[in-house]
Design goal:
Layout (H helix, E strand, L loop, with lengths): L1 H7 L3 H10 L17 H18 L26 H5 L30 H8 L13 H13 L19 H16 L17 H7 L1 H10 L14 H11 L6
Helix pairs in contact: 3-6, 3-9, 5-6, 7-10, 8-9, 9-10
Bound molecules: heme C (2 copies).
One heme C binds next to helix 7, helix 8, helix 9 and helix 10.
């Protein structure tokens, strides 16, 4: 899957170069001292680490299932080490979209840490329950992750109807953002990038309908390990408008 995308997006390497020169590359520990690293940027990097620290940090994948992953859970192996696997795309854990289905764990969400001291989150990431070593998630990366947990969470239930999965956004406004930003890579109809290996297809329209929480998280923070934009500089409502439009794009 990854391979075909890299080929398709070969031209993008050029676009990434200026960032690389400034030390701002996916997986890089820190920007050059002469570059002001904004909180917006750090929080969105933290959001990518939350999504998939292995891809975001180009780290080795653990082989065993996470010791705190419940025995009754349906996932196994490296996937169970992603923060989102236990705490959800909506950060609500068992109180959110993962209250049922193949990703159910019964584990709580992270709302209690919104607005908290980031050091608390760093300590939790290193505690016995979590067991993330600095070799997996470095201190610098843990700090970004902690900034995301304390400053980057939003209440997705305000923007996505849990029952219908519909985004509460303005489709026309969203189309304007989508067509001028996202379509450069995903195509005007969202079918330029196939997330699955052909002949299977999964487009942005599919993901946005099936998992609007994941899509909103990625719209806000970007896609780990891939040069994709993060829209966190826009208002949450703008981001939700984009989500609403992507829910209208073709699924095949
Ligand atoms: C395999 C499951 C699992 C994974 C993966 C996981 N956690 Fe947790 N997490 C837990 C459990 C279980 C608790 C509750 C511990 C308790 O109540 O004592 C918890 C609690 C927390 C809390 C405290 C929530 C509160 O309100 O007290 C934070 C913050 C947290 N996790 C952050 C993270 C971050 C960041 C990651 C990714 C690096 C992560 N977790 C990955 C299982 C997991
Ligand atoms: C610079 C190119 C680029 C731009 C601009 C871009 N994307 Fe992406 N996007 C990608 C690539 C590459 C992937 C990764 C595909 C993969 O991993 O299979 C991706 C993945 C995604 C995914 C994840 C799908 C999944 O299941 O993992 C979503 C959702 C997404 N993009 C939405 C958007 C939205 C919405 C916008 C506009 C705000 C946008 N993207 C802009 C390149 C881009």
């Amino acid at each position: 899957m990854q391979k075909s995308i890299r080929v398709k997006l070969a031209g993008l390497a050029v676009a990434v170069l200026p960032f690389a020169a400034a030390g701002i590359v996916p997986g890089a520990a820190q920007a050059d001292d002469s570059i002001m690293e904004t909180e917006l940027f750090t929080v969105s990097r933290g959001g990518q680490i939350y999504d998939n620290w292995m891809s975001a940090l180009e780290a080795d994948k653990p082989k065993k299932t996470h010791p705190s992953y419940p025995a009754a859970g349906k996932q196994k192996g490296a996937a169970t080490w992603r923060c989102k696997e236990c705490h959800g795309w909506d950060y609500k854990g068992a109180d959110g979209a993962y209250a049922k289905g193949s990703h159910f764990t019964g584990i709580k969400g992270l709302k209690g840490l919104a607005g908290a001291d980031p050091d608390k989150v760093v300590a939790i990431v290193r505690d016995k329950t979590h067991g993330y070593t600095p070799a997996m998630i470095s201190d610098t990366a843990a700090r970004k992750l902690a900034l995301f947990v304390t400053k980057g969470q939003i209440d997705m239930d305000r923007y996505i109807d849990r029952a219908t999965k519909k985004a509460k956004g303005d489709i026309r406004r969203g189309a304007g953002f989508y067509q001028t930003i996202c379509s450069i890579c995903h195509g005007v109809d969202g079918r330029t990038i196939n997330f699955k290996e052909a002949p299977k297809v999964e487009y942005i329209g599919t993901v946005a309908r099936d998992n609007p929480w994941e899509t909103l998280h990625k719209i806000r923070n970007g896609q780990p390990g891939i040069p994709m934009v993060a829209m966190s500089a826009l208002s949450v409502q703008d981001q939700v408008d984009i989500l609403a439009y992507t829910q209208t794009l073709p699924v095949e």
